[in-house]
Amino acid sequence: MKDGFNKLRKLSENAKKLNGEQQVSLGTLFNDGFLQTNTDFENIDELFEKAGFKVETEEDFAAIPQEDIDTFVRENTKFDSFTDMQQHAATEYMRKQLFKGLK
Using one digit for the tens of pLDDT, what is the confidence trace for 36-60? Predict the structure, then answer.
């Protein structure tokens, strides 16, 4: 019974850490495991490179035309758009953070 309460406490602590706005890097959100499982790309850098974009800064990323990256993602992954892929990655990231330290 004590183990159950400890797990509940840990879950609550993890949830508090996730409360509010979070800034997560593209590399963290689109980690290699996520991309290798859900796309044919090894990492986010390879995806951008194959799409024809050079992304080294936040400004580079912000300058990518949404329609162009959406088309590339739709044609080269199982996702409908970059936003769709981003939402799936964020959901996976949040789930992992929420259950971190729990078995």
Answer: 999 999 999 999 999 999 999 989 9
Maximum separation of any 2 CA atoms in the chain, in Å? 55
Is-contact 73 82, C-beta < 8 A?
Answer: yes
Which pTM does this prediction carry?
0.77
The full DSSP string for the chain is -HHHHHHHHHHHHHHHHHSS-----HHHHT-HHHHHHHBS-SSHHHHHHHHT---SSHHHHHTS-HHHHHHHHHHHBSSSSHHHHHHHHHHHHHHHHHTTT--
- 27, 93 Cβ separation under 8 angstroms: no
Amino acid code (one letter) for 44 = I
Residue type, 58: E
Task: Give the tokens for residue 11.
Answer: 């879950």
